[in-house]
Amino acid sequence: MASLNKILLIGNVGGDPEMRFTPSGVPVTTFTLATNRNTPQADGSVKKETEWFRISAWRKQAEACNQFLTKGKLVYVEGTLRTRTWDGKDGQKHLSLEVTADRVIFLDRQGAAPLPPEEVPAEEGDIEPDDIPF
User: What is the pTM of this model?
Assistant: First the structure.
């Protein structure tokens, strides 16, 4: 029988990404992602719940994430959920769920650059009828 491991997230980057390289030189960028959910309460109030995810992006996508993502940016992440276990310094076994990103889409708009001075639109009163192209 077929199986599926797919996770889709939209949220805000929790901190500036960190890029490292594997021993063979492959770039990997990690960052945290916060998703929010509002849950209505019995008393009529709304409780805001935040869920945190650890994201890993690889290769070209890792380079783009490292270059363009910063804390607070809104992103869409599509990937697979992975379980990682390790023994801590205290001898305890630790478990972490991580998302290996297959696709990251930056949802924040880039800030509009100001126009150079010669391209700044003239005030309405400064336009001559002969300047109108139609």
Answer: 0.73
